[in-house]
Design brief:
By secondary structure, the chain is an alpha/beta fold. It is 36% helix and 20% strand. It contains nine helices and ten strands. An eight-stranded mixed beta sheet has the order 2-3-6-4-7-8-9-10, sandwiched between helices. A two-stranded parallel ribbon has the order 1-5.
Length: 265
């Protein structure tokens, strides 16, 4: 009996270690939910668009869609969420064209027709590649960087390393590290997490005006996480709280419509 009691702590440590190892190797499946598209897939959008395939430094392809409009005031570079692909996100992003802006939205590696494997470094490097494409037609003072959900950390990185006209964040997180600590408090996430995506550290380097939208009933990224960014904003920045807003329906609320109209007017 005594020998059995001696074995219990060791068995518990082994089980805990196995869980940590499993989390480390499965975290891409937890964070990213891509849907792959065949290379010959034809997008069908209402808005006129051009499709681009950008080559990365390691010979992978980043697939992007550029929506056009007559006499554009500028361009919105759109960083989308963690699921699906451009077939869905293109329909969401093209809604911004009605404000008189062209829109450039792209798929991360492994999403849609983009190739390669997602890594933290690749997320930022590939976003930089897309931003360089944006600058072939528009000056930075005509470019607005827009991030939604997962894309808010990537968008903040772009705005921190460039000089766009404005940064818009919809349903942002304080950091993926902070989110992981919320949902897996008993794991050493600071040690085993590959994707920290520290919006909190990058946002203080953004010189452009910032507008943030977050709903109080967000069921994916808690309002408490996004609202922690308030203390890091500049005096002229704006954090717009949308009472009862969920993660995917903020565009239905007047607070969002008025706020985004103000940014894109």
């Amino acid at each position: 009996m005594k020998k059995t009691w001696y074995l219990l702590p060791a068995a518990g440590l082994l089980a805990y270690g196995a869980i940590c190892v499993g989390y480390y190797f499965l975290q891409e499946k937890i964070i990213f939910h891509p849907v792959v598209l065949p290379n010959d897939h034809n997008f069908s959008f209402v808005t006129p668009f051009t499709e681009h395939n950008l080559q990365t430094s390691d010979n992978q392809t980043i697939n992007a869609v550029w929506f056009h409009c007559p006499a554009p005031k500028g361009l919105v570079v759109y960083c989308h969420g963690n699921a699906d692909n451009l077939a869905r996100w293109g329909q969401i992003a093209e809604g911004l064209v009605k404000y008189g802006y062209e829109v450039l939205v792209f798929d991360y590696r492994g999403y849609g027709k983009s190739t390669g494997k997602v890594t933290a470094d690749n997320l930022f490097a590939d976003a930089q590649l897309v931003y360089e494409l944006a600058k072939t037609k528009f000056t930075e003072q005509q470019i607005i960087v827009y991030g939604r959900s997962l894309g808010t950390g990537i968008a903040t990185f772009l705005a921190a390393t460039h000089q766009p006209k404005h940064l818009v964040l919809e349903t942002p997180y304080y950091s993926i590290l902070e989110m992981s600590q919320r949902y897996a408090r008993w794991l050493p996430t600071s040690l085993i997490l590959k994707y920290h995506l520290r919006t909190d550290l990058r946002i203080t380097d953004v010189a452009a005006p910032i507008t943030i939208f977050h709903g109080t009933a967000d069921e994916v990224i808690p309002y408490e996480s996004g609202s922690k960014l308030k203390t890091l904003l500049k005096p002229q920045d704006e954090f717009i709280t949308i009472p009862n807003g969920l993660h995917g329906n903020l565009n239905e609320y007047e607070e969002y419509k008025e706020g985004i109209t103000k940014v894109l007017r």
